[in-house]
Amino acid sequence: SSGTGRNFVQDAMDNYDARDSDWGNTAPQLTGKEVGGNETDLTEAKVWGDGEIAEPYTTFNSCNFPKPIMASIYNLGFAAPTPIQAYCWPVSGQGRDVIGIAKTGSGKTLAFLLPPFSRFLGSRPERGPSMLVMAPTRELACQIQTEAERF
C-alpha cells in the first residue's frame, strides 16, 4: 500500500547520510569508441564517445544511488534499469554530456533526472532553482514534472 511505501521512503530519508553514497564514482570502465550491450535487454543499445566509457548498470544495486532514491525506485516497483537508463546513468556519473535517443516509454525521463537528484541529496539547498529542465511542449513538461515528483 502507499502508506507502507511512504513510510519506507521516509525511513530512508531520515536515515540518509550523503557520505554513504558513492554514486557516479564506482562505475567500471571500458576503453574504446563504441560499447554495445552484452546482455539480452541491452543488445540493441550503442554508446559512442571519446576516452573511457563506463559499463552499463544492469541492476539498480549497481547504480549506487542514495538510499532515498533507491527506496523510491523499489516502492514504485521498477525491476531493473531500462537500456537507456543502464547506459546514461554511468556516463552522466562521470560528469559527461549525454544525448539519449529512445522510444516513448523507455525510461528517458528518469535517465536524465536521477543523476542530478542524486547529487542534490548530498548538498546543501541553494537559493533558487537547482535544476532547469526544458521541454518542447507544455504536455511533455507536465509529464516530466509528474515523474520528478515521484522522487
Automatic annotation (TrEMBL):
ATP-binding listed as a keyword: yes
GO molecular function: ATP binding; hydrolase activity; nucleic acid binding; RNA helicase activity
Positions of the DEAD-box RNA helicase Q domain: 58-86
Residue ranges annotated for the Helicase ATP-binding domain, each copy included: 89-151
Motif Q motif mapped to chain: 58-86
Keywords: ATP-binding, Helicase, Hydrolase, Nucleotide-binding
Matches recorded under InterPro entries: DEAD/DEAH_box_helicase_dom (IPR011545), Helicase_ATP-bd (IPR014001), P-loop_NTPase (IPR027417), RNA_helicase_DEAD_Q_motif (IPR014014)
Gene3D superfamilies, alphabetized: P-loop containing nucleotide triphosphate hydrolases (3.40.50.300)
PANTHER family linked to this entry: ATP-DEPENDENT RNA HELICASE DBP3
Name this protein carries in UniProt: RNA helicase
Protein's organism: Alexandrium andersonii
